[in-house]
Amino acid sequence: MKTVSLMDISPFLIFLFAYGCSASCSVGCLNGQCDKTTQYCSCRDGNYDLKCSSRCGAGCLNDQCNKTTGFCTCRGGYYGPRCSSKCSVGCLNDQCDENGYCTCRDGYYNYMCSSKCSVGCLNDQCDKYGSCTCREGYYYSSCYKCGAGCLNGQCNLHTGYCICIDGYYNTRCSSKCGDGCLNNQCDQSTGVCTCKDGYYGTSCSSKCSVGCLNDECDKTTGYCTCRDGFYNTICSSSCFPGCKACSNSKYNCSTCTPGYWSTPKMPCRHTCNSNCASCITENNCTECKAGFYGPDCRHKCSLGCLNKACDQISGLCHCVSGYSGALCKERCPSSCNVCITPENCTQCVSGFYGKTCKTPCSLGCTSSECDIITGRCDSCREEYTESVSPTLTIVSTVSNVIAVLVVLMIGAVVLLQIRRSKMQTNIEDPNVPMRARDHGDLETATQQMELYEDLRHDDGNGENNRHYANINNINNPTYQG
Questions:
Q1: Rounded CA gap, 314 and 432, in Å?
Q2: pLDDT tens track of the chain, all 481 residues?
Q3: Calpha distance 168→174 (Å, rounded)
Q4: Coil, helix or strand at residue 360
Q5: CA–CA separation, 152 vs 146, rounded Å?
Q6: Is 353:359 a contact under the CB 8 Å cutoff?
Q7: Crossing angle, helix 464-475 and helix 390-428, to 10 degrees?
Q8: CA pseudo-torsion sign 434, 436, 437, 443
Q9: What are the residue ranges of helices labelled H in 320-459?
Q10: Integer CA distances (angstroms), 66 to 25, 28, 42, in order
């Protein structure tokens, strides 16, 4: 036989054994005692019914009620046979009779003072039916607010009729004109108006479809011309995403949107490669996206291309500063802003000069800038004197030497011509020897005659110069033969 230990017994059963099953009695039973069969018991204060399981009403005086019915005498602010209902918030001094009826405080009405007077009641007072004298802006016995569109907020005190401001209509000006009414004006009786662009209908309260070209449609029917991607009479239906234009059906495409291409069975359902703006087939592009080129748009424009844009076939482009070459892939030297080639700069970074912009301007330049070709400063700092570059100095020196040599050569030629002219005169004058004879110088006259005859019979072998010299020497008084 199996032995049962205390650990196998439910704590709830232990509780029942210890208290003689009294746990089934209501908490309202006096001393927790009740009939073991029916659970009936004597109630403690605040409870009632046979098993004392019900609480007396919250409004019972001193928390006492009949132990059988629960009826009680109510304390202030409560009513009903069991005092379980509170008097209305509108009751004067929170007091009411056994039925909840009471005298109302200002702002409330009806027998139980549970309804508030209209906000339009003068001095917040009304009779037990809610009728009152209205303040301005309200009408009828219950003081309803005049329509939102009433001029100056005023209306007839009995009917509520008023004159409408722009944007409202009907007898009480409580309805707004349609959003599409031109100048926000409509017929004050019917609400009919002239539509501004983008709206249609008798009251212009309907907007043209989002698919209408330029957001314009017929102002009566709403029919319009569709923009790309929409169809039907009012252009309210969208074509398939790849369709630029379709009819009768979202799949009945006549033109593809950029980035899509067609097959006979699947019009505008295929996408171009990611670099294509438009294509005939996936990799047969008719237009590349910005920054790409080539028949399949797989090549990227050079980083040196202006605005990252290039010719979509060749990749040729205009270069940004610092790049050169047809494709703008060659970097100019770091001190060169613009170059034709890396060895031929046309614009240097401030502070450099020369064909490759690698030579720094002199520290003595006022603004650290100098002529891009010569390196000459616009102006010098106070502690520096003006000078030219070594290259310019050499060029200037060579130029000066050449100029001097040219002048000397020209002078020599002129002197030689003068001398020859004189010699020629002496040769052509046969009277020269005769004059020497007349002066009694027979020897000189004889020598001149012999030389004269020699010159006349010169064999052309360049002996004339020697004869010229001899004639001149003979004519010279100091000549000794």
A1: 90
A2: 444 444 444 444 444 444 444 458 999 999 999 999 999 999 999 999 999 999 999 999 999 999 999 999 999 999 999 999 999 999 999 999 999 999 999 999 999 999 999 999 999 899 989 999 999 999 999 899 999 999 999 999 999 999 999 999 999 999 999 999 999 999 999 999 999 999 999 999 999 999 999 999 999 999 999 998 899 999 999 888 888 888 777 778 888 888 898 888 888 888 999 999 889 888 889 999 999 999 999 999 999 999 989 999 999 999 998 899 889 999 999 899 889 888 899 999 989 999 999 999 988 888 888 999 999 998 888 877 765 444 444 444 555 667 778 778 887 887 887 777 665 555 455 554 445 445 545 555 455 555 545 545 544 444 444 444 444 444 444 444 4
A3: 7
A4: strand
A5: 10
A6: yes
A7: 70
A8: negative
A9: 390-428, 431-438, 442-456
A10: 20, 14, 12
- Alpha-carbon gap, residue 262 to 361, rounded angstroms: 64
CA dist 481 and 470 (Å) reads 9
Contacts of 278 (CB under 8 A, 6+ apart): 258, 259, 272, 285, 286, 287
Contact present, 472 and 465 (Cβ < 8 Å):
no
Query: CA-based diameter of the chain, in Å?
Result: 200
Phi, psi of 138 (to 5 degrees): -135, 160
Distance separating alpha carbons of residues 98 and 79, to the nearest angstrom: 5
Q: For residue 127, what is the DSSP state?
A: -
Copy the structure tokens of residue 418.
């003068």
Pseudo-torsion of CA 393, 398, 402, 403, nearest 10°?
0
Cα separation, 260 vs 318, whole angstroms = 30
Contact status, residue 164 vs residue 188, Cβ threshold 8 Å = yes
> Looking up tokens 């076939």, which residue turns up?
313
Instruction: State residue 418 phi and psi, 5-degree precision.
Output: -60, -45
Amino acid at 212: C
Domain ranges of the chain: 343-389
Residue 387: what pLDDT?
54
In the prediction, which pLDDT does 475 show? 46
CA distances 220 to 187, 196, 339, Å, are: 17, 12, 66
What Å distances lie between residue 201 and 209, 231, 234, 259, CA to CA?
13, 20, 13, 38
* Location of structure tokens 């005023």: 154
Strand pairing partners for 348? 336
Asked if residues 50 and 37 have their Cβ atoms less than 8 Å apart, the reply is: no
Contacts of 480 (CB under 8 A, 6+ apart): none
Torsion of CA 464, 465, 466, 467, to 10 degrees: 50
Q: Where are the beta strands (DSSP E) in 257-363?
A: 260-261, 270-271, 276-281, 284-288, 292-293, 299-300, 323-324, 330-331, 336-341, 344-348, 352-353, 359-360
Name the token pair of 24: 């089934």
